Amino acid sequence: MPSDPEPAPREDPGTDEHAAPPVHLGEDPMVVVDRLHVTYRVLGADTDDGSSRVRRALRRGRPRPREVHALRGVSFVLHRGEAVGVIGSNGSGKTTLLRSIAGLLPSDRGQVFTCGQPVLLGVNAALMNDLTGERNIVLGCLAMGMPLREVREKYDDVVEFSGLGKFVDMPMRTYSTGMAQRLRFAIATAQTSEILMIDEALATGDARFRRRSEDRLKELRDEAATVVLVSHSLGTIEETCDRTIWLDHGRVRMDGPSPDVVAAYRDEHE
Ligand SMILES: Nc1ncnc2c1ncn2[C@@H]1O[C@H](COP(=O)(O)OP(=O)(O)OP(=O)(O)O)[C@@H](O)[C@H]1O
Q1: Residue 98 in 3-state DSSP?
Q2: By residue range, what is the domain housing residue 96?
Q3: Whose alpha carbon is nearest atom 3 of ligand 1?
Q4: CA-proximal residue: ligand 1, atom 18 (nearest)
Q5: Residue 83: other Cβ atoms inside 10 A
Q6: What separation in Å is there between the alpha carbon of 89 and the centre of ligand 1?
Q7: Where is the composition biased (Basic and acidic residues) (predicted)?
């Protein structure tokens, strides 16, 4: 198993023939991504560099980290009022891009500017199995940056939405997978934001909960000024987003009106 990723050291900016030209801001920019590069460094990965096992065993010093250059000079501007889809094959850099915009990953080159703190809705909220649902709601909301007063105000709604009922006082390890997912979703969507980023993986739970989640996402979308949606479902992207960015091996392959970008992507993948 790879060790936890470490941010790669900053490289010398130098020149990059693949870097996009500096971005043009246009009117009312909410997110500016300017020639962004992100590299993961995986320590302890077994790199098969062709050297013999004996030579590898004798090699002095620490094992060489493996580097994954996940974003390679990505640039674009998102404006107020836009709903933008991000598509691309597995490993093309979609999640990395959202995490970078949310400020959860350092860049090794390039910059991200946002107007306010973006909220990234993902299913991976780190909840604690030994704590009750109630404690997890409070800690989860605080961890998202919500002030305690707002956590108190929203607590009942989160419990109601999660559908946990009296289980909210039980430790999370006693929950079924579906119940834990519902709790994560309820916590993640408790917060509203001007810049809302949604990972498709959120569509979890049974049919009734899925319908409620879709309604909740719609409400959040209506409240947000700018929405970014990552999805493998081209239908959802076409329905929800006016504009789509196609990522390919860490680069922007196409950025334009959703029907055009989705059609080009389908041509290549279907
Ligand atoms: N924590 C990590 N440590 C090391 N490499 C990572 C890590 N997360 C992602 N990567 C690598 O970075 C690249 C981009 O991954 P990312 O998850 O951003 O792609 P994605 O487009 O979201 O993929 P998917 O559609 O499968 O969710 C991939 O090569 C992936 O292996």
Answers
A1: helix
A2: 6-39+68-118+231-269
A3: 5
A4: 93
A5: 19
A6: 11
A7: 7-19
**Domain check: are 162 and 134 in the same one?**
yes
Q: What ipTM was assigned to the predicted interfaces of this complex?
A: 0.98
Q: Do residues 188 and 238 both lie within one domain?
A: no
pLDDT at 52 over 70: no
- In the DSSP assignment, the letter for residue 169 is G
Both structure tokens of 75? 């640039």
Token pair in block for residue 56: 């590898």
Residue 164 has pLDDT above 50, yes or no: yes
Q: Ligand 1 pocket by C-beta < 6 Å: which residues?
A: 5, 40, 42, 68, 70, 88, 90-96
Q: Could you tell me if 158 and 236 lie in one domain?
A: no
Q: How far apart are CA 84 and CA 246, in angstroms?
A: 11
Q: Does 111 share its domain with 143?
A: no
Percent of the residues in the chain that have a pLDDT greater than 90, as a whole number: 46
Distance (Å) from CA 253 to ligand 1 centroid: 17
- Tell me, in angstroms, the distance from the centre of ligand 1 to residue 200's CA: 15
